[in-house]
Amino acid sequence: MLGAIIGDIVGSRYEFANIHTTDFELFTPYNNFTDDTICTIAVADALLLKESFKDSLLYWCRKYPSPMGAYGARFAQWVHSADPQPYHSFGNGSAMRVAPCGWLGSLDEVLEAAQKSAACTHDHPEGIKGAQCVAHAIALALGGSSKEEIRQIATQTYGYDLSNSCEALRASYSFDETCQGTVPQAFICFLESHDFESALRLAVSIGGDSDTLAAITGGIAEAYYGIPADIEAQALTYLPKEFREVVREFQHEVGRK
Ligand SMILES: [Mg+2]
Q1: DSSP string, 181-201
Q2: How far is the CA of 37 from the centre of ligand 1 (A)?
Q3: 175-218: pLDDT as tens digits
Q4: 122 Cα–ligand 1 center, Å
Q5: How far is the CA of 212 from the centre of ligand 1 (A)?
Q6: CA dist., res. 237 & res. 92, Å (int)
Q7: Contact assessment for residue 37 and residue 8, using Cβ atoms and an 8 Å cutoff
Q8: Residues whose CB is under 5 A from ligand 1 (ion)?
Q9: Helix (H, G, I), strand (E, B) or coil at 231
């Protein structure tokens, strides 16, 4: 799940200032964690404490109400509601926070947790599908599946079209905060990558919702490649101590790192 957080940090400064190159500095004073990280921490913490995803998301998001890039407007309303209810969203928020679910034991557990982690807000079928597909890919990568096997699950089981290339996306893609307009693009970036770092660079290079694209791509890439120690160390410097504690505990308790 740290891969998703690193992707969020790396992509953060490009969310509203897209670039279309893989040649950029990963970590600068202008990077920070955003809502993707806070929600990923909340999902991981819910799994650790065996509490509901809804309660954990409310706890962490209320504690960090104004992240870089801000929360989506409807999600922010949900966070601050007196009686938060799912709002049928198919935004990419369900896919950007789901990575910890991919690290659970069996595929049944992975898919059930992914469904539940999405459904407290993103109960539209596309919102659930995006979360489950990303968690499924993480579980497959951790289990030693090839990229071709991961591609086939995404296309055949989930119906995503992965026929585009990063080069074509760089020319044609624009900001899209839906699951169905983010998850396939993140998969394409992962499938074209050759290591963890190149996956993040490709995800930023296609433009769009850069922090979330890099978070989704990074979560899958971590499971497939692992994370270089220097990148992990630099990313951790951006996180509050209590986030680092959740990451460490998750890696120790759940992550078969
Ligand atoms: Mg964000």
Answers
A1: TTHHHHHHHHHH-SSHHHHHH
A2: 8
A3: 999 999 999 999 999 999 999 999 999 999 999 999 999 999 99
A4: 16
A5: 6
A6: 26
A7: yes
A8: 34-36, 69, 211
A9: helix
